[in-house]
Every structure is written in C-alpha cells, then in structure tokens.
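Worked example 2:
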Amino acid sequence: MLLKTIKIVLAVAVVIPLLLSAWFSFDFYFAPKTSPKEIFFVVDKGQGVHNIVQNLKEKGVIKNGRSFLLGYKIYYSSKSLKAGEYMFNLPISPKDILKILTEGKVHLHPLTIPEGLTRKEIARHLESLHFTDEEEFLAASSKTDTISSLDKEAANLEGYLFPETYHFPKGISAGKIISTLVSQFKEVFSEAWQKRANEIKMTLREVVILASLIEKETFLSEEKKLVSAVFHTRLRIQMKLDCDPTIIYVLKEEGRFKGRLLKKHLKLTSPYNTYRNRGLPPGPICSPGRESLEAALYPAQEKYLYFVAKKDRSHHFSSNFRDHQNAVRRYRKQ
C-alpha cells in the first residue's frame, strides 16, 4: 500500500510540472487566436509591471496575465519595461510583447520636413505637430558643432536641417531631431558632391546658399538647373542676383513680411539684399532639398541671364535684357 502511494505521489510530482510546463509554453510562446488588428498601447514612466499587465489585459493585447508575469520573471527580470508608445499587431505572443517592451521598440510617428523652410519655420512646424517646443528647437539649432567640420562659418544650422520624411518616437528631444536632420544632410551631400564643389570652385557653404536660393525661386524640378544656370552666370560676370526670396527672408526674420514684396523693399539695407549687393548672401535662406543642391552643383549648360514668373508659377528664361523686358510685359499682363 505504501509503495503504491509512493508511486502515485511520484507520478503526480512528474506529471504536474509537465502539465504546467506545457501550459506555460503554449500560453507564453504562441499567439492566442484572435482577429488581426492593431492596438495602440502606452507605458507611462515609472509604471509598475503588474499595472502594465493589467492594462494589457484590459486592452485585449494579452489574455492571461499569469503566464506573462511568469515569463517576465524567468526571462526578463533583469530588464525594465520601457516607457513609451507602442503599436501591437495582433495576434501576438506574450514573449514577443515582452521582447518589444524590454527593448523599447516604441511606435514611431512620421514627420515630414518640407523643402524650403527656414529654421524658424521648421521649429513652428514641429511644435504644431507636438514633436518639440519651438524655443527649445531654435536654441538647439543655434549650436553648430554638428556641422562645423563642413562649415566653420555657420552661425546656426540654417540650410542644414535636411528636408525629408523621418520617423520619431513621442517625447524625442529637439537635439536628437536636429542631429538626425543634419546627419541626413551629410549623407546626401556625399564625397562626390564635395569633390564637385571643389571642381566648380565653390565651398560647401556657398553651394548650400545657392541651393537655398534655387529652392525658393522655383518648385519645378525641370527648372531648378535653369535657375542655377542664371545664378552661376551672374556670379561669374559679377552681376547682382536680384533674387526676391533673399529680401523676403530678411523681412520674415524681422517679422516685417506681410505676404507681398513691395518696391520699397528692394532698397532694404541688408547683406542679404541681392538687389544691392553682388555675390551670394552671407548665409542660406532655407533648407534646400536634394534636387536644389544637385542643381547648384550641376547647372544647365545655358546662357540665360534672366527669368520671369508666369501665371502658373513656372518661368520664362531669357539670355538678354531686351527679350527679358518683352517677357515681363507679356507675362505680367496675364
């Protein structure tokens, strides 16, 4: 009788752990059957594991909190569950959820920096999208250490905050956003482009300045190299650039631009006024995109000296003043 009892106890002692192990493995490693869907989930700073598990159950991300907690204690107890926003694609196993939470694979929000924005406009854009504070961004983008190896004259990061679509987590600092934007500029402005700048006897800074003018003069891809040709020719013969956007830039910086450039503004006393000063302005007037940078480096092989805007915002190009005057009369009447 005693022997039989011992055998039963031993059998139970073997079977129960096996059953528990089977239950845990099935519940922890495999995703429960559920319809495919995305669930947005937030882990707050300082939130405890038990509270996170309860929220996961309430959101329908997990069904069994016990296997989740057991798995955390066995495999991830040395790691914390990182605060942040997460997007879980159901069905998903508790193991995969824990991996995401302990590695901090937070949900990334898309952020598009449009081409042609100034540093201040980018700051306002970011604040309107709740990515960062405007003043914090302006303060951080006043520091030039991230670009000093390429441009020692830069007073701030105007022109180097590369326009592109990025993906950032909620709560990212202005400094990290700026670092990403400048890094993207460096990647785009390759060694081949730096070599090309040397070939045309321009510094990287001069190329960026010229590209920013091209960016503001035309949004049409097919016109960028033509505008570049005009500016390159004018620079070569020391003819003033007469670029309206350079004046608009100053007026915006001073908070005096009312949406329209007036004739009196052409007399503005400023080194950025390309109607009064020969050569390039002292700094970029926006962040130019890839096409404008390329156009600054590779102008069209044309002898154009002038261009005038048409009603559809495209431009007519002329190689002499008489043709330009005729074009002005023709298109200003439209």
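The first strand starts at residue 37 and ends at 43. DSSP finds 13 helices and six strands in the chain.
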